[in-house]
């Protein structure tokens, strides 16, 4: 099959040979990079946030709802399932595989409704259960309890909550924690390495490499705590959240209690007040926290990139790759650049998810349906970025010679220390300490100040002898305050 563009060239323009359509290649070629180039990194998310994972969780919810109804005798006359029958139903979930995926796809072509296809799958398995469990099984008698009193969103909201919880707790959080621990480890390792700070891009009060990394690790850990404490809400209350069908069918049952007990049985937080849909507010809250983690990680990537460009970090380990196709000397900081781009894509998706999901017209519209199918890519790009930053950091060594050179070239940063000491001395009654800021401004602004010139200036101020000697002995490399000690707060 040729591309349409090959057929539609302007008259008189030489047409290239028709190309085979890549859309027809088997096995199918991925459209996006997460399922193509970067598949290996994000593959663990497939178990939680793919279309197949969605259908598996739908089956899980439907099976557990059926078991819940029969166990609690919610519907009069319904038999209690034996342990063997419950195991048979739950095996549909544990044995869910590519054949089940294909079967559901074939059924959905007929139903044109994904949740209905799941319902029919379960009914078929229950109808054929006698061939496995024997003719005495009651499963064929209770097929109409599959999807009982449910709207599709009763199943979907619970399935998505289980999917997202699994993806966050089993895949994303472990990767994020490993990264943050790596940053924290580097902070401790380099706690005492002095480094010129830059505020507004200009030389500023020195710090240590470890303290600056500790700031980022501390910020990231705070977001992780928020994400670890996320609530995953769910509901199962019918077409408009009123238990209308439930009470019409069985008015004697305590459906509110049964609903709450079921949602909590799944390990979720029960939402008592909804329309047809669970309101998705918890998703917006979670995605905002993950996006904030992403943005802090983006800040780390840009800062480390800048430190590499300044020579503070040398890229030495695991860097056998080609840096430039034409310049052999280059080792490009590609891991951090790749991370930046993927974090930006992830945040854009997470922001869009959060903004869209909290709104639904009246009792229901379908904007959330297609939107939620992009949860996987949102987490996928974040996971890919985390992997890139981890690999990038693993290839770095601090070049203490470079940081020392930069510090020694900027003695003027001691102006802050000197004028502050002059202020304190003036308050204590020492004469001659007037206009400290202005005097240091005249000495340092727009000028390179050498160590000898700074010491000469300090010793000529008339400061108390001990103060003068302490300041005269100070260098940019020793003017780091409590920076090294502050790293210990990472362990609190």
UniProtKB/TrEMBL annotation:
PANTHER family (UniProt xref): ADENYLOSUCCINATE LYASE (PTHR43411:SF1)
Chain's role: Catalyzes two reactions in de novo purine nucleotide biosynthesis. Catalyzes the breakdown of 5-aminoimidazole- (N-succinylocarboxamide) ribotide (SAICAR or 2-[5-amino-1-(5-phospho-beta-D-ribosyl)imidazole-4-carboxamido]succinate) to 5-aminoimidazole-4-carboxamide ribotide (AICAR or 5-amino-1-(5-phospho-beta-D-ribosyl)imidazole-4-carboxamide) and fumarate, and of adenylosuccinate (ADS or N(6)-(1,2-dicarboxyethyl)-AMP) to adenosine monophosphate (AMP) and fumarate.
Reaction(s) the record says it catalyses: (2S)-2-[5-amino-1-(5-phospho-beta-D-ribosyl)imidazole-4-carboxamido]succinate = 5-amino-1-(5-phospho-beta-D-ribosyl)imidazole-4-carboxamide + fumarate; N(6)-(1,2-dicarboxyethyl)-AMP = fumarate + AMP
Domain Fumarate lyase N-terminal: from-to ranges: 36-339
Identification of the protein by name: Adenylosuccinate lyase
UniProt pathway annotation: Purine metabolism; IMP biosynthesis via de novo pathway; 5-amino-1-(5-phospho-D-ribosyl)imidazole-4-carboxamide from 5-amino-1-(5-phospho-D-ribosyl)imidazole-4-carboxylate: step 2/2; Purine metabolism; AMP biosynthesis via de novo pathway; AMP from IMP: step 2/2
EC class name: lyase
InterPro entries noted in UniProt: Fumarase/histidase_N, Fumarate_lyase_CS, Fumarate_lyase_fam, Fumarate_lyase_N, L-Aspartase-like, Pur_lyase, PurB_bact, PurB_C
Domain Adenylosuccinate lyase PurB C-terminal: 360-480
Gene: purB
Gene3D superfamilies: Fumarase/aspartase (C-terminal domain), Fumarase/aspartase (Central domain), Fumarase/aspartase (N-terminal domain)
UniProt KW Lyase keyword: yes
Name of a matching Pfam family: Lyase_1
